[in-house]
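**Paired protein data**
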Amino acid sequence: MTTLHWVGLLLLAAFAGAVVPFQSAINANLGRGLGHPLWATLASLLVSIIVLLPVILALRLPLPNLGFITKAPLWMWSGGAFGVCFISLALILMPKLGASGFIALAMAGQIVASLMLDHFGLFGLVERQLTAPRLIGALMLIGGVALIQFSAAPTRSLVTAG
């Protein structure tokens, strides 16, 4: 892989992370407007389908392997449940913790879970041993999370529920 290719992948990963607080903040407002965070979760997932279907059609992707449905282990279908969990918790917690607080804490959870997934090579991932430098890096990131969450007192929200 070329350096340019790696840089592109890194930028895409950073972009993927950057859209999360926007999604969460927007959906939190939608949840307040609709009367409950779960309605906003449903709306978000429906909009995802509406946006994704034309992309699939434009790319002329082949139909999925329907035979795989009966062969796939149940855990392969849990991704959607994890998505609902994240979206719903983001809607509930972001207004209380703030964007930086929620994302920092979510990132801390992602770091810990990612280290476990890598260490044990779960779900078909390549095993990447939990070494001292990786653990120190994770602890430094989690320390940064604590600084972000606990160093600023909330002021007031410009958006009200009324």
The longest helix spans residues 3-34.
